[in-house]
Amino acid sequence: MMKTDPTTPCGWANALVTMWGPRFPVDVRVIASEYSTRFSDPILKIAEAEMPGFEGALGPLKKRGGWGILYNPSIRSPGRINYTLGHEFGHYLCHRHQEPAGFQCGESDVLGATVSQEREADQFASYLLMPLNDFRKQVGNQKMTLDLLRHCSDRYDVSFTASALKWLESTNLCAAVVVATNGYVLWCRRSAAAVRQRIYFPRGMELPPGSLAAAGDRSLLADGEGVNLAPGIWSNRPTREVAIFADHYEMTISLLVFEDLGVLPNGWEDEEVEDTFDRFTLSR
């Protein structure tokens, strides 16, 4: 048992990983149920619940005095469910005293959120399920492909999107993940190198004609390495696009790598690089 409670989402996740050991995939149900018993208001219920418009929720159980974590049974991906449970467990550890009424989290809250508490719950889930040191051992210096994303998703029992976002955090390459729905950008995340290069794709931007995501041609995904695109499509730089088509959410997830822009120098992991969502627009 820890002498003092951590004060950050990463601190909570790292402490729990240390306590439970490097066993993957992480069973959020077991950890949440067992560890929360050290508090006077433990998690007493983890169950499915019909919640139109929401993926997961954390709420107080008024009669029993503890908390419950709920997830929507319409979620088709087991990895997505596991990440959602991790997200809600993050709310429990980090935010339950701030929001005694609990949380109801939509799809955009569980991944891609901009609200501070939601981003913190995402950060907790990411570090609990995919500790950075282990993740870097899995990917090494390999070229990011669908097969490598699938390996990471299977190892950690998370979605392709969650694995892609973790890769962005771990890589020194200039890269971005762009999630779009119905042909328009919903949100964008960037690697540290892409932040420095001021590469960004704003919410509401139409998917570029000629991009793999806009074409919707799944036959181009056969080798899993994506497609090399000429300058002028996603940016004024050559771009390798790896695309994932998510039928259930009518979404496309594009992992973009700008390999000609080089890499960050050694020691970049120790620097704080701000990732604002609306400060920079891409120069086309």
Please tell me about this protein's structure.
With 284 residues, the chain is of the alpha+beta class. Helices cover 33% and strands 18% of the residues. The protein has helices at 9-20, 28-35, 78-95, 107-110, 116-129, 132-139, 146-156, 160-170, 192-196, 212-215, and strands at residues 43-48, 56-60, 67-71, 103-105, 175-181, 184-190, 227-229, 239-246, 251-257. Strands 6-5-9-8-7 form a 5-stranded antiparallel beta sheet. A 4-stranded mixed beta sheet has the order 1-3-2-4. The longest helix has 18 residues, at 78-95. It is globular, with a radius of gyration of 19 Å. The N and C termini lie far apart (53 Å). 40% of the residues are buried.
Keywords:
2 domains, 18% strand, alpha+beta, disordered C terminus, single chain, Arc Repressor Mutant, subunit A, Beta-Lactamase, 5-stranded antiparallel β-sheet, 9 strands, 284 residues, globular, 4-stranded mixed β-sheet
CATH topology of the largest domain: Arc Repressor Mutant, subunit A
Q: What is the number of beta strands? A: 9
Strand order of the largest sheet: 6-5-9-8-7
Number of domains: 2
Order of helices and strands: HHEEEHEHHHHHEEHHEEE
Which structural class best describes the helix and strand composition? alpha+beta
CATH class of the largest domain: Mainly Alpha
In round numbers, the mean pLDDT is 86
CATH architectural category of the largest domain: Orthogonal Bundle
Compute the number of helices.
10
Helix content: 25-40%
